[in-house]
């Protein structure tokens, strides 16, 4: 493991040892403190919103190491990939050189925030040091320096892509770093333009590319969901048609199985011969007996089917059959003639 310290900020050995244990346990590539010690006491929380052992996201590579609250690295990991950093040693934007080991650790491994600092420093003296540097080099956080730094990071990512056979997850980590740093750079340029041309301030608008990317992803998800819904609706429509056909056929079958229809059909078939007329009484009796032994649901038969000639004939025949001893079949002859006229009239 490699522990980075500065000349004026000695290590807190107990914390470093605890940090190494945590790295071995969690198999971390980098460990970063979230506090700065001020004269032996916990001072400013530099990684705002971060908690003990929370993961360092790839896009946080700068903030997790730039404040230098003490860093621990996996030495084997750096030894394998740090040669990519060599061409950038003399880069004018290389103010915080120790950010590059953090980048490597977060691309090829992972990192976490530590619950305490690894070095002992003075927050106030550190702030004064930054102010002095700003005056000496024209502003550490000045636009030109920031742009050089941004260019340096992009060059580093390009070198990695050219020299390494990267896995998809490693490419995704680099993509997150590029998007995160590009968004920061866009904000810097936006504010610089507003400061340089205050009279035109209202004409400037900031476009957050990362937000657009997020919206584009959501849009793709919604479009995919919409397509799925459309497909589901089409399937449902197809199923509905199939069910309607099944129901229609079922109702027709039920209608044809109903007793009045069966009796009417038997009357039509047996009315074609004298022998048929002779046996009609027994045929109807047999149909009634069979019908009694079956569970029928007449209520599902559509009313329009009950108005058909066959069904009406069956009803009249059943009535005549039940009153045969009163001359029901003799009266049926006249009832059938009347029914034929009614059906013909409706047909016209």
Would you write up a description of this structure?
The protein is an alpha+beta fold. The protein folds into 3 domains: 2-206, no CATH class; 208-257; 258-347, no CATH class. The chain contains 12 helices and 6 strands. The protein has helices at 13-26, 63-66, 75-81, 99-108, 123-137, 143-163, 168-196, 209-257, 259-270, 274-292, 309-322, 328-347; strands at 2-4, 30-33, 35-38, 41-45, 71-73, 111-114. The strands form 2 sheets. The protein has a 4-stranded mixed sheet with strand order 1-5-2-6, with helices on both faces. Strands 3-4 form a two-stranded antiparallel ribbon. A hairpin with a 2-residue loop joins strand 3 and strand 4. Helix 6 (143-163) packs antiparallel against helix 7, helix 9 (259-270) crosses helix 11 (309-322) and helix 11 (309-322) packs antiparallel against helix 12. The chain is rod-shaped, with a radius of gyration of 45 Å. Keywords: Coiled coil. Residues 212-246 form a coiled coil. This is Capsule biosynthesis protein CapA.
């Amino acid at each position: 493991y490699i522990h980075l310290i500065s000349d004026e900020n000695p290590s807190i050995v107990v914390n470093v040892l605890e940090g190494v244990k945590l790295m071995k346990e969690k198999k971390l590539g980098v460990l970063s403190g979230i506090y700065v010690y001020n004269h032996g006491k916990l001072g400013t929380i530099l990684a705002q919103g971060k908690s003990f052992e929370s993961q360092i996201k790839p896009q946080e590579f700068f903030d997790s190491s730039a404040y230098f609250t003490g860093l621990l690295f996996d030495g084997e990991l750096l030894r394998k990939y740090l040669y990519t950093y060599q061409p950038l040693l003399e880069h004018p934007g290389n103010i915080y050189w120790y950010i590059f080991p953090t980048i490597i650790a977060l691309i090829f491994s992972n990192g976490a925030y530590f619950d305490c600092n690894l070095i002992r420093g003075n927050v106030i003296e550190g702030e004064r040091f930054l102010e002095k540097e700003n005056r000496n080099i024209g502003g550490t956080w000045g636009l030109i320096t920031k742009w050089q730094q941004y260019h340096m990071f992009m060059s580093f990512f390009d070198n990695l892509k050219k020299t390494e056979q990267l896995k998809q997850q490693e490419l995704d980590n680099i993509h997150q770093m590029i998007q995160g740093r590009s968004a920061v750079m866009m904000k810097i340029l936006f504010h610089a333009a507003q400061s340089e041309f205050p009279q035109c301030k209202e004409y400037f608008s900031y476009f957050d590319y990362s937000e657009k990317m997020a919206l584009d992803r959501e849009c793709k998800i919604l479009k995919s969901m919409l397509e799925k819904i459309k497909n589901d609706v089409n399937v449902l429509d197809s199923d509905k048609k199939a069910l309607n056909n099944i129901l229609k056929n079922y109702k027709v079958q039920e209608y044809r199985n109903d007793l009045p229809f069966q009796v009417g059909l038997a009357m039509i078939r047996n009315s074609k011969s004298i022998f048929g007329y002779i046996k009609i009484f027994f045929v109807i009796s047999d149909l009634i007996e069979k019908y009694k032994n079956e569970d029928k649901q007449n209520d599902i038969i559509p009313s329009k089917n009950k108005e058909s000639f066959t069904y009406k004939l069956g009803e009249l025949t059943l009535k005549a059959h039940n009153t045969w001893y009163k001359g029901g079949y003799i009266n049926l002859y006249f009832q059938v003639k009347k029914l034929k006229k009614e059906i013909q009239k409706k047909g016209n």
